[in-house]
Amino acid sequence: MKKHQVTIIDIARQLGISKSTVSRALSCHPNVHEQTRIKVLKLAEEFEYQRNMFSVNLTRKATHTIGIIVPEFNRSFFPQVIKSAQEAAKDAGYNLIIAQSDENYQTEVTNAKLMLQYQVDGVLISLTKETNNFDHLKQFERRGVPIVFFNRVCDQIIAPKVIVDDYEGAFAAVEHLIETGKKKIAHLTGPETLKVCNNRKRGYFDALKKYDIPIDEELVLHYDLNLAQVRIYLNHFLAMDPRPDALFCVNDPTAVEVIKLLKAKGIKIPEEIAVVGFSNDLVSTFIEPQLTTVEQPIDQLGRTAVALLVDQINRDIANWKAHTVVLKTNLIIRASS
Amino acid sequence: MKKHQVTIIDIARQLGISKSTVSRALSCHPNVHEQTRIKVLKLAEEFEYQRNMFSVNLTRKATHTIGIIVPEFNRSFFPQVIKSAQEAAKDAGYNLIIAQSDENYQTEVTNAKLMLQYQVDGVLISLTKETNNFDHLKQFERRGVPIVFFNRVCDQIIAPKVIVDDYEGAFAAVEHLIETGKKKIAHLTGPETLKVCNNRKRGYFDALKKYDIPIDEELVLHYDLNLAQVRIYLNHFLAMDPRPDALFCVNDPTAVEVIKLLKAKGIKIPEEIAVVGFSNDLVSTFIEPQLTTVEQPIDQLGRTAVALLVDQINRDIANWKAHTVVLKTNLIIRASS
DNA sequence: CTGTTAGCGCATTCAT
DNA sequence: ATGAATGCGCTAACAG
To answer: Is the full-model pTM beyond 0.85?
Structure first.
């Protein structure tokens, strides 16, 4: 049971001044006598006064709060993005409300509502793998709340997007496999709903084309990113004759799972099958052999997304810009290829 | 720039009724005509009305929101706890505000303030490794805001705590090492400020005692949990003569780092040195050899913490209970020992 | 520089 | 079953 909350009125009464003056003193308003300000600050400290954000945000038009919706918390990727976004937000004078959708469309819709209820000034979002309806996001537009996509973006909503150069990264990864002499390169990717996956797939195809390697659609498998399913798809590849001598995986957890399975079967990596991932997750150096992967500038991703969002917030709604920022990736070659 | 927000007044005006009725219809108040309620709900839907949480929470005494403060986002541990806490909170009708302190005392203080400003009904907290002053937490008590510690707890504040049985888990781990024939077991642990670490250390000592192995304080090293430092401490152990034949590490990331370093030196695991961790982090199966570790019931941890907190919230402040819930651990033996 | 006044959006008395 | 009135804590005009 909460006790009575200390308000500016308590401070005002005690000091025999008006609550407006207290409010001004507390919020660094210029027009306050220095002596008064000191007295107010001192008493506020003594009373352990804390501003009631609900009151503040009800009064002001802006809440100086931005929301971030991420699809999951299982990999280290999104917590890392959140961390950098939080720093950037703080630097820009914004609070950050975090919500995770558990790769579930309905939860994402609920989270979107939550952001609206909390009157965020803007939203950062990365979609769940299930999301293919975007009505819940159009609502932001209608309400004049800017939105910035990152990582898991979509084309159906016009808004700024921050992604890494998935195409380029995948291209470089596959090119690297080709250069190391691999002839039959398979690709295990995620759901077709995810644009990240499709971009990486394009990179895969184009790298093959560049070296005149015939495209074989059989060598590309889509799965739902549920790691427990990986063995099914891997077995499918292994049953081919001749079997692939390299496997480019859509992300690091997938690649690590593949390596674990291959090792269990006694298949030599990279001699028999080379494996490459995407992300440079922490796990990529824990596995043996260490994973060749495409590094993403996570910190930059979070910071850029916040910067773009803050830019939108300060802009007139009519002038929203919807350009896409593409961050460079970096191929890290390790022992798995 | 935000557009005009739809309020209950807009709905009331459109329907030619009072905002009180709209408010009642929207919040399932019994005393409202069924026809009226339907009309209101329909229009609210059409207008895409969203309740303004700032207004709601300013009006009500309780915000139905709980805060969670975690020390870091780097390991998978805390995001996992948050995920389960969020589920439990939702089931109990609470929203969750997430804050991470970046292992930084000052940030933790700021986060605590933030929770107060957002008028949370209660707080879940796991301390940073730096925290040894608790004034910022006493504030919760003074304000009548219940607090529940989890994982990184402290004795100085009287409040419910949820921890795993660190002592038992460590005891079992070390006992296992002894049973596999290890004679000189070293322990690399975290800062002495962290009670988790001390409990694990006690388990380490008592297991040795049980088997009449003389305690050697030289074999216990404290470090700041910054993985980059691990090599220094490991080298110290390796320089001993005879050198330890087993190393019990305070957590999995530490153990994984140790394994990587030992492998780089060509030291055989577990033959020359066995390694055991604590947590059963995701990484523990990625490393080669796979890591023997003490599993913690993360999901249960988050859910229990929320349950205890909600219990406190619904209790009169005078009746706060401060018992500690200790969850069972489970030793998972893998190839590193 | 300071006090007065008027809301922000909603829930909740108290009337009717 | 509904409406009118009040106030939550604060900021922001508007006066002085």
So the answer is: yes
